[in-house]
């Protein structure tokens, strides 16, 4: 067990990630990762599947020390040795998941092709996004109702000094227009801005903003940053020495260095309408 712990720490250091960064990318809590590294409890099968899919880690190496750290590396010893049963199970799970994804993709593509062929047939009536039929009381075309998706609400983010977060309160959701979602709902979340340090970026105090999960600083991007259990919103800037600073957007020009223990948790996407409000999950 201790050898697995040591190899997990070695892997994280090789990836140049701290515990918080690695835990975020693998969608687990930092204390859980810390428990794996200390040997408090063994890594779960789900964790090993996720770290293999995300970083290409050789699970045989993680469990036994055999072979290279990453898939595709030349093994240290003969590859003819018997594969660890947990590794075999993880390989089967990954292959099964991949097969399912490919089947769904093929089904979706075939459905689209059939729909296109149907519309290209001679005499086919073109489809519209909404009905153009009217009644004697209506002489207008009805607009389609916008579609909304529910995103997790993360409380407040400071546009000024960082403010603390309360994970036990992250049970509320905010409904946002689906046109703002470019990937999947799970990639986004919502926060309320407190303070006016981002006023020049048109993000005033009290704004509800939508963010997309990210753990990498990007020059010129407005990002949410976790600082000692607190979170703040600033523009990320890279200097000539490749150091990172957080810049206020209120005309003051003030900057805050991005400390070694601090990390990005999201990229700013959009300011939501003033009427946007968080709701309890399951509330209509």
Number of helices: 6
CATH topology group of the largest domain? Umud Fragment, subunit A
Low-confidence stretches: none
CATH superfamily of the largest domain: Umud Fragment, subunit A
Helix content: 25-40%
In short:
With 284 residues, the protein is of the alpha+beta class. Helix content is 29%, strand content 23%.
What is this structure's SSE topology?
Elements: H1 2-14, H2 19-25, H3 30-38, H4 45-55, H5 59-64, H6 85-120, E1 148-158, E2 163-164, E3 172-177, E4 188-194, E5 208-212, E6 222-227, E7 230-238, E8 244-247, E9 255-257, E10 263-271, E11 279-280
Structural commentary:
This protein has 284 residues and is of the alpha+beta class. The protein folds into 2 domains: 1-127, Orthogonal Bundle (434 Repressor (Amino-terminal Domain)), CATH 1.10.260; 148-280, Ribbon (Umud Fragment, subunit A), CATH 2.10.109.10. 29% of the residues lie in helices and 23% in strands. The chain contains 6 helices and 11 strands. Strands 1, 2, 3, 4, 5, 6, 7, 8, 9, 10 and 11 form an 11-stranded mixed sheet that branches. Helix 2 packs across helix 3 and helix 4 packs across helix 6. The model has no long low-confidence stretch (mean pLDDT 80).
Protein traits:
single chain; 284 residues; alpha+beta; Umud Fragment, subunit A; 2 domains; eleven-stranded mixed sheet; 6 helices; 11 strands
